[in-house]
Q: What sequence folds into this?
């Protein structure tokens, strides 16, 4: 009998890959795969890679212009992103996109204060300016929950305008946090250690009161009133979830991670419900890290109890959700060495042997798109557990295997992956001397 020669994974990918050459047709296969799906989740393998930001924006532009997507929801704090939302919809006093990004002052600033985000916001503002109906303008919203104090200020500011007596009650409830200063982790440690009572009852009571009063507040005329109410209610919900999150930080990592991703998924659903009366059937594109948007059930982290936004959206919406990931083999990345440290331009080490990154590098196509379920043979070959790299706002090359890799089954994690073999660091709006200098490769000065 003749011997059957089975193709290697790089050979199979090469046979099915769609090369990305920088032309207008690059993303046609992905748009065809998305079809009419109203949820498109587009990840990133790092929080500091230019190609991930730029290409994600290009795909999103096509979804907005050709598929009538209603909003972009991102891994950013709700109050800061809402300022951007008002700017791109022509409803703010900010003179330009740079000014509208002024709320992003907390580490890591470069994650949103960078040249690629600036370009996209400018495009979105111009696109919206051509739509005379305010209800049809595309919004920009945050999903994250780190903004406890900013969200408290937003709730108080809203209630001072619409119900001063309710504002005073809210101030008394939120005063529970005053003794802990501006760092919510201080509160979380004190409450978890028994050094101080938790503020859980106060924040829940405030959320309940605001929701009970929503009907009366909503009867005010005009879109601005409805927007302001939605903004305030989401901030009150954020405070309640953030209070729980900061206490969970001093317990199980899985617990705090799950609380955060549950909050983001709930915010996405709330946003869809809010937009439905205006646009009919909302279509939402989500930007966040691969680790949030690839189905957690396909990863070793999921087997340890973690869930994420991608899993939750898939469980709720099934085929109406398309999950897209990014990958790179080497290059540079904007990241810090420790939390609250300055942004640096770091060298990304080549993908480890046995990783998807290494397999993609062996394909021999510099940049390509692969639809992970395109054929049963390709899906089966991709479905063997392999390492996958995840670089967040911190990158520690010396401990890369332990710090930045985990096992996953790619076709269960993502419906499509875009691989850019050599990438470069995203450009912060504020470049420090350390970023400009960059990090020397390990082979310097021999360059071998």
A:
């Amino acid at each position: 009998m003749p011997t059957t020669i089975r193709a290697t994974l790089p050979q199979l990918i090469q046979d099915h890959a769609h090369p990305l050459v920088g032309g207008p047709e690059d993303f046609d296969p992905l748009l065809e795969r998305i079809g009419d799906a109203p949820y498109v989740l587009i990840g990133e393998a790092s929080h500091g890679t230019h190609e991930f930001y730029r290409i994600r924006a290009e795909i999103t532009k096509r979804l907005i212009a050709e598929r009538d997507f209603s909003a972009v929801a991102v891994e950013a704090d709700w109050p800061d992103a809402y300022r951007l939302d008002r700017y791109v919809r022509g409803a703010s006093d900010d003179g330009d996109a740079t000014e509208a990004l002024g709320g992003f002052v907390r580490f890591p600033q470069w994650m949103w204060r960078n040249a690629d985000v600036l370009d996209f916001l400018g495009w979105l503002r111009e696109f919206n300016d051509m739509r005379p109906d305010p209800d049809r303008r595309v919004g920009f919203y945050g999903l994250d929950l780190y903004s406890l104090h900013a969200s408290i200020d937003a709730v108080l500011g809203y209630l001072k305008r619409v119900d001063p007596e309710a504002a005073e009650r809210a101030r008394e409830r939120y005063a529970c946090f005053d003794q802990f200063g501006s760092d919510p982790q201080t509160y979380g440690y004190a409450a978890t250690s028994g050094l101080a009572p938790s503020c859980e009852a106060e924040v829940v009571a405030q959320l309940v009161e605001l929701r009970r009063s929503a009907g009366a507040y909503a009867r005010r005329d005009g879109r601005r009133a409805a927007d302001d109410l939605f903004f305030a209610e989401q901030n009150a919900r954020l405070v309640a979830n953030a209070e729980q999150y900061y206490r969970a930080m001093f317990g199980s990592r899985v617990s705090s991670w799950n609380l955060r991703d549950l909050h983001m998924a709930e915010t996405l659903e709330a946003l869809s419900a809010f937009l439905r009366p205006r646009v009919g059937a909302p279509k939402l594109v989500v930007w966040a890290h691969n680790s949030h948007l690839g189905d957690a059930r396909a990863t070793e982290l999921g087997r340890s109890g973690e869930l994420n936004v991608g899993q939750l959206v898939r469980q709720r919406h099934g085929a109406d959700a398309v999950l897209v990931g990014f990958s790179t083999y080497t290059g540079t990345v904007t990241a810090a060495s420790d939390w609250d440290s300055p942004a640096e331009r770091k060298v990304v080490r080549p993908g480890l042997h046995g990783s998807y990154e290494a397999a993609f590098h062996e394909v021999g196509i510099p940049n390509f798109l692969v639809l992970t379920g395109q054929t049963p043979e390709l899906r089966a070959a991709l479905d063997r557990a392999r390492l996958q790299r995840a670089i967040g706002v911190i990158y520690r090359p010396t401990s890369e295997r332990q710090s930045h890799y985990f096992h996953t089954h790619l076709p269960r994690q993502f419906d499509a992956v875009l691989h850019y073999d050599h990438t470069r660091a995203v450009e912060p709006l504020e470049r420090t001397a350390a970023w400009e200098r960059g990090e020397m490769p390990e082979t310097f000065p021999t360059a071998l």
Notes: Confidence is low (pLDDT under 50) at residues 1-5, 443-448. Residues 253-279 form the longest helix (27 residues).
